[in-house]
Amino acid sequence: xxxxxSTSWRRALLCGVAxxxxxxxxxxxxxxxxxxxxxxxxxxxxxxxxxxxxxxxTFADHLYFTYPPFALLFFxxxxxxxxxxxxxxxxxxxxxxxxxxLSVLARRCMPVSKRHAVVLGAxxxxxxxxxxxxxxxxxxxxxxNLVLIGAIVLxxxxxxxxxxxxxxxxxxxxxxxxxxxxxxxxxxxxxRAALRAGAAFVAATAVAWLVLPGGSSTFxxxxxxxxxxxxxxxxxxxxxxxxxxxxxxxxxxSLRLVLWVAASAVTFALGVYVARRYVAQGRRAEALxxxxxxxxxxxxxxxxxxxxxxxxxxxxxLARGERHRAVTIAxxxxxxxxxxxxxxxxxxxxxxxxxxxxxxxxxxLVVMAAVEWRAARHAEHEPAGAPLGAGTADPASVGPRSGG
Length: 404
Known about the structure:
- The protein has helices at 6-34, 36-49, 69-79, 83-109, 114-131, 133-141, 145-157, 166-174, 181-187, 191-211, 213-223, 241-245, 255-280, 284-298, 312-319, 325-337, 356-381; strands spanning 58-59, 63-64.
- It is an all-alpha fold.
- It has one domain.
- Strand 1 (58-59) and strand 2 form a beta hairpin.
- Helix 4 crosses helix 5.
- It is globular.
- The model is unreliable at 386-404 (pLDDT under 50).
């Protein structure tokens, strides 16, 4: 818990302003000439508006548009702007969405005022975009990840129960990976929100199908579940189990698929176990992160910029709480790893480090699961009526909650 003085908060505010100034300078210097993914979004949306065969065409640097058809409708306003204007609008939307999401988490995890939560969230968001490779990559390439993170956090912690799930469903209609957070809603006991997320996903997909019947048919029947269509998924930049097993020789054949399914199933099961334990203890922000981490590891495609969820870690670390020291250390290791990003050094011949992000992420999830399993075993052997130990929340206060 943060116990800063008013002077410390003013310094944090000034530091945040300075860091945001650097972020804006980086966007001006690099983002306006480097936003390859944004250019793909814009060109694909423009192609769609002009009646082109979007899913059979390539854009920018000979890249396919690999998102669902609803994403074309979502990105279409950007195609009406010049590239320079689109970079500014889109990058600022991304960092602002991240800042809002982290502010919400800070407010959720710490006993701080809304004003202080905004200061902290904005500072961590700006610093993360500069320090951590997944966020830096996402921002400078003009990716959509940070907008989706903000939408998911808002849905889980801010949207009232009667509307919860809609933002997750719409996010999944833009990019399929947020579907994993329906699992979080189910774990949290919010079945109606999970159904609402599914309904929003189906409705958005149906709207896109009405507008783009040909493109929708091509995407959903031929491309959606084909990782190879997304380009180079059996590479070191795909920091998931599929990327790793893809490095096995071609002679491995179906063994690669078997290994991926097995590793992904075990990994995701660990994530669900950890999330269930955290939800039962009222640690919902950590539960959300556990599901995000499990999803990244099990997904067929987790480019390094997909790992932008590491921006949540500084907020969790500052919140402290009753987290086991081993989990804290593992979180710090994962966060620090993304600064020098050795998983990219394979370009200079350092292949053994190529999947370091994957394995450190697996290590963090395993440590989380081991700590929770040990705590559960310890609780089973405690005599009835024993006082609550350190790290065990009061059962009267940790049941599933439907509020934000």
